[in-house]
Design brief:
The chain is mainly beta. 5% of the residues lie in helices and 27% in strands. The strands form two sheets. Strands 1-6-3-2 form a four-stranded mixed sheet. Strands 4-5 form a two-stranded antiparallel sheet.
């Protein structure tokens, strides 16, 4: 498992680095295999960020993350 700070996570946005990572509730997820996150963007959300607060306005539940294994933790 890896550990990244918010500033380190910001580099994994699908643009600066090819990996597409997001954080949610302190866990890191690699969304690079998701067809919904191509180029590091999903609707108005961008990879490389902690999506915990933004998720409150999402049209789906947090169980969407059940499809992905956590790869680490946000420090």
């Amino acid at each position: 498992m890896i550990q990244l700070s918010k500033s380190q996570l910001a580099k994994y946005n699908g643009q600066d680095k090819p990996e597409i990572y997001v954080a949610f509730k302190g866990k890191l997820y690699d969304l690079g295999n998701s067809r919904l996150w191509k180029n590091g963007r999903h609707y108005e959300h961008w990879a490389g960020q902690d999506l915990t607060e933004e998720f409150k306005d999402a049209p789906h539940t947090e169980h969407v993350f059940d499809k992905f294994d956590p790869i680490g933790y946000l420090t």
